[in-house]
Amino acid sequence: MTQIPPTQPPHTPPGRRPTADPGHPPARRGLVGLAVRIVLLAVVDALAVYGLLALAAQHKWAMFGALLVGTVAVNVIYAGKRHVPAKYLAPGVVLLLVYQVYVVFYTGFAAFTNYGDGHNSDKPDAVAAILAHSETRVPDSPVRPATVVARGDRVGLLVTLPDRGVRLGWAGHPLEPVADPVYDSAGRAIAAPGWHRLSYAQIASRQKEISELRVPASEDPNSGSLRTADGISAAAYRSTLDYDRGADTITDRGTGKVYRPTSDGVFAADDGTRLSPGWKVFVGLDNFETILTDRDIRGPFLGVLVWTFVFAGISVAVPFAIGLVLAAVLDGKRLRGHRIYRSLIMLPYAFPAFLAALVWQGLLNTDYGYVNVSLLDGAHIAWLTDPWLARLSVLAVNVWISFPYMFLICTGALQAIPAEVTEAARIDGAGRGQILRHVKLPLLLTAVTPMLIATFAFNFNNFNVIYMLTGGGPKDPDAPIEVGSTDLLISLVYKLAFGGSNRQYGMACAVSILIFVVVAAISVVGLRRSRAFEES
Amino acid sequence: MRPRLLLPAVLAAATLLATACGGGGGDKGDDKTAPPASAPAAGNGSLTVWADDARAKPLQDIAAAFTRDKGVKIKVVQKGLGEIRDDFVSQAPTGQGPDVVVGPHDWLGKLVHNGVLAPLELGDRAAAFSPVALEAMRYEGRTYGLPYAVDSIALLRNTDLAPQAPASFDELLATGRRLVEQGRAELPVAVPVDAKSGSPYHLYPLQTSFGCRVFGTKPDGAYDQAKLELDSPGCQRFGPWLRGLGKDGVLSTSLTADIATDAFLKGKTPFLLAGPWDAATFRAAHVPFAVDPVPSVDGSPARPFVGVQGFFVGAKSANPILAQDFVLNYLSTPQAQRALYDTGGRVPATTAVLEQVGNDPVVAGFARAAQAGLPTPNLPAMDSVWADWGLTQLAIIQGHGDPGELTSAMAGRIRAKIVAG
């Protein structure tokens, strides 16, 4: 294909064909292709401008800059006729950055914070929540019908008291009687001289202002302030806490207790009492330190780490051994009905692993499961609730799920070995066993080692089987964190992040990073070793 | 080489934004799109409501009425019940969270503790709800939710096998055992127990009939997390009794909810402890059954946990007034509460609606069971309580140790966890 057709179908990516000769004149392209390119670029730019405006409105300048740079880059790449490799790479790079790099960096970032329950946002949010929670209804104060009214820029509340007439007030200006209010048919005041009622649409567009409006009920500060939550009724509230923005402290009006922000992201008083919620703060290596040194967590963590290695190792070795033996037996056409055997062996692989684990959970039930009731004649063996039997059960089920895959790749690898090689060995006088050991196995291992490493990595993080079969249980009642005998690191992470009691996203991210380090190290070593195979 | 390095760097910046704008997975609460043409006023903003599949449908209809009247667009996002609480906590701070969520009241502690809920002022509307529903929606003296349905465990009785409602749990066991001896049933009673996490919820009515509660209360009636009572004298009597049932094979740690329900539907057991969420399944089956409160074992009233479903408003909602208006003035009306009942079939929390539908024997039975109940504690500490509590029950039922010692050890562990926060 050295000839370029005069017109190209519109779906071919625009761009000059890279040639060895830089002086090569650019190819004439069809107008359709150009039009498509312009339209697509226009759509991208339109979306980008919308995004830029939205971000500018929210004052998110870091994001704004990022989008601006990205948009410029896309235009530079696709508008001109140069940067041909970039034209092909850009979409993939964007997806890689969004789905991989960003996630990895975010995980890395969160691992160094105390992100989790009670520390899920920033400090202003925490202060707002603390103050909102401290506002309490003034005892015996009724909820009164209220109308949101405005005069110029100022909003106020017009309150109709059943027995004491109509009052009006606004921020910093206590309620006072209104001379001649306007009533609606239901006898509720809707306007006062100089003040007009806000329509629902106007209320909707000024919601923040109206929900933050506090109208003193009277000159006496103890009578509280009126506020409206829904725009049609108001009640008097008193706040028990004050936030001093300058000193960055919160003071309890009643007791005079002063709460100061601490380094772990909460407001705490000198006597140790804390206000919730807290906020997210950077805690450095605290999470890693906790996992590796805190005696309560280190014990379970190391136990889980060892079990994870054992589980992943056995889940690779045993299915591989079974698969290899079966593949070797069924290799060649001498066995009658080998097709039927192959189909039968493939059956577990045809089941979704999720379903298989759930079905096994039912089969292994202590008193009602098929295994105990029918196969073992009514035995009551606690397959999934005894710590060691549960470990055996998850391994057995995982072997059952994964040996067909191993059988498949071993069969493939064996059939890929050229017949000439085995022929030559046979002429040299090698028996079947010798051929298998000295000729076929080395060749086969070269081919399947990457698969074995991948399977190890997969089983190292095999969340599904554990979660579906035992949920990581049986739980260890003495451990301070929720952990069970069959928990892998990944299900431990899940429990830390979304499990039992406290969501600890920062801690979970730290464990994830440790898992990554382990898996990466094993993969690197394993692949180096497999390269050594090839060279031998 | 330089351009090649430049490209990823440039696009990295673009990516950050893509994840910020589109990768969040939530819906923008401050969406300023115009309402549909049918709306009376132009663009009165919009609300996002998170609901699970059981509640999304009835909400759609009520939301349509609100849109018609006020010109506010309401987007009902259907999510798994298990995800709503955690996603709400993590997305609310970004401003991408929902304006309103639907869920059970025992989320309250955790949601308030994370500062994502706005208090609700029910005012005079409170009179419409049952006291237990109102109590459940209070946390640290403030109300945070508008109730609409109450759930609690009740006793389902196969009226063919057991025509008479048992007056006590002992009588129930005697009836059940007699039927097993006669060969008319396989199990005297089916009490669901989860083999992984025990059965604190289903066993609570039996446990409270020994005078054993999970937490003591403050003077205002709210639970006090400093007063864990799981090792009170009543609880120490409950342990050996539970062990006795385990020894006799009445309780089995392998009798999952599925197996228990199935046994009842096939007529293999005269009695089943169950909640109202499976009511539709029972109605569809061909077993004649009645619903009664769980009878007492030890003399004190058997008081099940009551779970109250309700609506909560997000603290960081971009539309605080609209959200409060929708919840307080729309969802609280008898019509809306009735519509929620008609599609969901849960026991209504509004006394007026309960009177309308009270002639349904199933609803009436579950309602009677809930009247005697106690709200499930909505303290954040509850999450640490369930796990140890259930594990200890499993150990007692299976006879892994002395019930008294197991009970005391459990209470010590839970107290330590509550103190540690």
From TrEMBL, chain A:
* Location(s), subcellular: Cell membrane
Main localization is membrane
Disordered, as annotated region:
1-24
Q: What are the residue boundaries of the ABC transmembrane type-1 domain, all occurrences included?
A: 305-526
The keyword Nucleus is annotated on this UniProt entry: no
List GO BP terms, alphabetically.
maltodextrin transmembrane transport
The organism sits in which domain of life? Bacteria
Q: Where are the transmembrane segments?
A: 34-55, 61-80, 92-112, 301-328, 340-360, 388-408, 441-460, 505-527
Q: Cellular component terms, GO, for this chain's entry?
A: maltose transport complex
Name the job this protein performs.
Part of the ABC transporter complex MalEFGK involved in maltose/maltodextrin import. Probably responsible for the translocation of the substrate across the membrane.
Q: What is this protein called?
A: Maltose/maltodextrin transport system permease protein
TrEMBL record, chain B:
Where is the stretch described as Disordered? 23-45
User: InterPro entries this protein is in?
Assistant: Maltose/Cyclodextrin-bd (IPR006060), SBP (IPR006059)
Q: Name one GO biological process term.
A: maltose transport
Keyword annotations from UniProtKB, A to Z: Signal, Sugar transport, Transport
Gene3D superfamilies, from UniProt? Periplasmic binding protein-like II
* Signal peptide per UniProt: 1-20
Spell out the molecular function terms from Gene Ontology.
Answer: carbohydrate transmembrane transporter activity; maltose binding
- What does the entry list under GO cellular component? ATP-binding cassette (ABC) transporter complex, substrate-binding subunit-containing
Family, similarity comment: Belongs to the bacterial solute-binding protein 1 family.
Q: What is this protein called?
A: Maltose ABC transporter substrate-binding protein
